Sequence to fold (731 residues):
Amino acid sequence: MIQSIVFLIVLGIASIIAGKKFMAIRRNILLGKDEPDVEDAGQRWKNVFLIAFGQKKMFKRWIPALLHGFVYVAFLFTQIELIEIIIDGVFNQHRFFRPFLGGFYTFLISLIEILSLLAFIATLAFLARRNLLKIPRFQKSEMNGWPKLDGNIILYLEIVLVICVFMMNGADEVLYNNGLTHANGVGSGETGSFNFAITSSLGPMLFGGMSEGALVIVERVGWWGHILVVLAFLNYLPISKHLHIMLAFPNVYYAKLASRGQMQNMPAIMNEVKSMMDPDAAFADDGGDDEELPDFGSKDVFDLGWKDILGAYSCTECGRCTSVCPANLTGKKLSPRKIMMDIRDRAEEVGQHLDAGKVDFIAQDKRDAQKTLTAENYDDGKSLFDYISKEELHACTTCNACVEACPIMINPLEPILKLRRYEILTESAGPTEWLPMFTSIENSGAVWAVPDARDKWTQLIDNNKES
Amino acid sequence: MSKPLTIKTMEQLAAEGKAPEVLFWVGCAGSFDARAQKITIAFSKILNEAEVDFAILGTEESCTGDPARRAGNEFVFQMTALQNIEIMNMYKVKKIVTACPHCFNTIKNEYPDLGGNYDVVHHTQFIQELINDGKIKMKEGGEFKGKKITYHDSCYLGRVNGIYEAPRKVLENLDSQLVELKRSRSNGLCCGAGGAQMFKEDEPGDKRINTERVDEVIASGASVVAANCPFCITMLQDGIKAADKQDEIMVYDLAELIVNNNGL
Fold:
């Protein structure tokens, strides 16, 4: 009874705190602009099924795909055990599903045990890859400090989790052997075995000969350890790269379906240019000349689309994008992963200020009229350009290698191009070498200022001679 | 054997009350760059040989706007794009073929939002169709027979538009030995020119991107590298020259390979 009450309190508090953090993330994502309608639900669900759920894009690299697959599948199946733990905790049961599922229960828990063992091995391999083998993509400069620690913390927690599963099932097995388990469907004093694939032998090996009291403690530590690590995880996710275990799914669902070669059109500019080209429009426009054009492109998270920010929060910093980026491969500053990490950091910064409600961050010109800080009047004098340098943006070849590489369809190219648009259109800045190209297209319709006519090449054809 | 080649413009044909089946979009590189002009002429010869009813826009063609748009200059992009669309719609253009994957991408994927809807194919796809339909007959035992040829996927034809097979099928007709680069198809490595990089200096780094790519070309052991983009070709040639391999490795567009093989 007391255990149930304690369990409910812990579960309740952990869920409330986590819930608040997740709502803050939702708010931060929605700091971004509205995105065009989400069409083609059929294709989107297909992507969720194949790419998010089925991890299709992971299999471009077999070894990490397999290792990650173990952890992932173990995670999915452990949810069943987790539901049971919650039911057991709330209603003071022990192995609630067992009598209902019978032999299938044995199969299910055995499967979870095998997967947990595989996940354990994979986790050790991951730790080695990060810390001993020093796989290059984990060693880039944007990984210094917290991102590196974050990556390791998750792996340590994973190891603790697996150990808890084996403690719980292993000790319970010995208790059953000795006629002492309280599992549902086992008669009082009945001796036997759960026949779980690993703990039916591992349990007696590790815990055989221990006293009932000690066994109960090992079992309870495993049980409580499991649920506490899960709840800690839940509260850790919002500040961790590991958030991808949740956001990968919506991110894949909402990912761009249009051709990779299609940049978002800017109807405001298109219409402006159309009216410039239309001889009648000049007269139809009744004195609206002084109407100011809005800022173009993106300067801050508010000017990105919410899908860009969702992508940033979904990123697990694996660095597949950066490891194939031609700019990064040749020593340039650009790293697509860093772009996504910067967007998340900036969204977090804005979110924290909004939560604190500091009136100092209300834009100067709105301070008299408005007294509460909102996303609309927010101005802390900073922007994404305090995180992302122009040098990074200028290095992009728009080759889409990063887009292709991301296993969960994050698109680092979209925000890069939106920031470029801000620099060129709103700031009228950018690499000076681009100016002759712009001018030349505008004045002579060619990327180079060439004196020749565009069809001069036709005169180079020599019909009498082989080329 | 081949028929004399004369290039007609849409305007000339319109004056005769005619409209060609296909518009050959030449692009800036194909029109002005000395190296790319050869590709333009090579592809024109193929069209001529296959008796394709085609014309160009000539002086009425402008840059598609791709580099301006990717640099971030939407104004310049819209100006040039809308002008092109206006002209093409005036001529009621339906089918376009181009030898530049950037032009191909922009007209195919970006012009529809601006009111330009055309059936756009890249010249490598077009050539493959001509070979398939028997309109271009490959001469056997041509100059590439037995040679090691490798193929560089341009980003905008490959990864961006998913066209990997058509160019490779064309190459198979050369009776040569096709070897793949270490990074190919969807993993292909950029030549370094895209996203308006062609028009500026590199950002500070350890190495040029084309050098990185050319290292792979050299490692493949191929004596010919086939490409499908005038900008890639410039980049690859520069990289090969920088590695002092210009006498051992030749860079060709697919159209040139066909023309050379068949002696057109």
In short: Chain A is about 60% helix and 0% strand. Chain A has two domains: 2-30+61-254, 295-444. The longest helix of chain A spans residues 146-177.
